[in-house]
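Two records follow; treat each independently.
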Amino acid sequence: QLQLVESGGGLVQPGGSLRLSCTASGLTLDDYHVGWFRQAPGKERDGEGVICIGKRGRNIDYGDSVKGRFTISRDHAKNSVTLEMNSLQPEDTGVYFCALDRGFQFFCSRMMSRYSDWGQGTQVIVSS
């Protein structure tokens, strides 16, 4: 049975960094596209993810707001995907969800409609 579990959220000051992990059980995460999505306080989950990584590292797609600040990578030994967030700003605040795209497109996409399996999220608060 598939399970996606996010971890690593917390409270950080503006300009700080956090590392989020998405760990899977029940399948090999490297065989699927993985995206990270944000839900800001009081708002619906963004229809476009902040970033995604293609299966077997085929591609990485960055949202405009995170280019140069966020990176994503796979840890095959841990069957996980890591989101490294740097230069965090208050507008980055929200619950971050990782999600799985089981489709057959060659590259990952940040469009929410592509994703079928979701973790429960981890809270990120950027505040002084």
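The next record belongs to a different protein.
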Amino acid sequence: QLQFVESGGGLVHSGGSLELSCVASSGAFGGFVVAWFRQAPGKEREGVSCIHPRGDITNYVDDVKGRFTISKDDAKKTVYLRMDNLKPEDTAVYYCAATLPASQASCNFTPLRAFGSWGQGTQVTVSS
């Protein structure tokens, strides 16, 4: 069964960068859309970015476009989220999860209920 482990979070100043990793610790990796989500204190979990199993199609929530970059390394069974120009409002626990692709031409990170194999999350804190 597919299971993810996230890492790479930490404390950075506003404007700083982090790269998160999402490693498939078990189970088949290929063939799934993998998405990053985040949950800030007192807020609902929201989708941030996703990547199609082929790796050539990505999608981002509007407020991270131009700042975050998702990528994958199938050989390492890892999906990355490079986060640049971080803002205090990016502070959250970041999770990755997977779902089967609904389209060959796009990927989506909604609805959350379609996703499984959630990891334990990694904390990102951005100070002002």
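Discussion point: The chain has no helices and ten strands. How would you locate this feature using only the token line?
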